[in-house]
Amino acid sequence: MPTPTKGPRLGGSPAHERLMLANLATSLFKHGRIQTTETKAKRLRPLAEQLITRAKRGDLHSRRRVLTVVQDKDVVFTLFDEIAPRFANRPGGYTRIVKTGPRKGDAAPMAIIELVEELAVAEPAKPSKASARKAAKAEAVAALAGGDEDVTPSSAPETTEAPAPAAKPADEADES
Predict the structure, then answer these.
(1) Continuous segment of H or E residues that includes residue 165
(2) 49-63 pLDDT, tens per residue?
(3) Which of 27, 36, 52, 59 gets the highest tally of CB atoms within 10 A of its CB?
(4) pTM across the whole model
(5) pLDDT tens per residue across span 28-50
(6) What dihedral angle (degrees, nearest 10) is formed by the CA atoms of 57, 7, 32, 110?
(7) DSSP assignments along 51-116, one per residue
């Protein structure tokens, strides 16, 4: 029986290994994170990243190549239309493996493999302290300059009109 070219064997024949990795990749793209053994997670990572890279291309050939591995068309649609655009600006490293404790039954080392959330698309990166101070200072100067101009014309008539009505009733009250 031929052995895989790299990495530890996952048991069974190479065809069984391919099918097992395809099922793991399908589950990963469907749920976003899965818990499996460390060995399977380490073998799944390169396959999942290749599939995401193909999905980022988005052409018909890439879609057909991904369909040879991931048989579920709904998952392929999700991969191409939701997952790949999320990683459009990322050159690689789409997955993360977090080691958890041993499995209760056979003490196999377990891990969680998950898709890395792309935060740059959702919200801008935090600026450094120096640039944050400069931006805050510029906003404060703009607010003072813009605030004084806006407040002066509108507040001046209000202040002159507000005491005048208040003074009249007071004068009328004194005269009566």
Answers:
(1) helix 163-175
(2) 999 999 999 999 999
(3) 52
(4) 0.63
(5) 999 999 999 999 999 999 999 99
(6) -170
(7) HHHHHHH-SHHHHHHHHHH---HHHHHHIIIIIHHHTTT--S--EEEEEEEE-TTT--EEEEEEEP
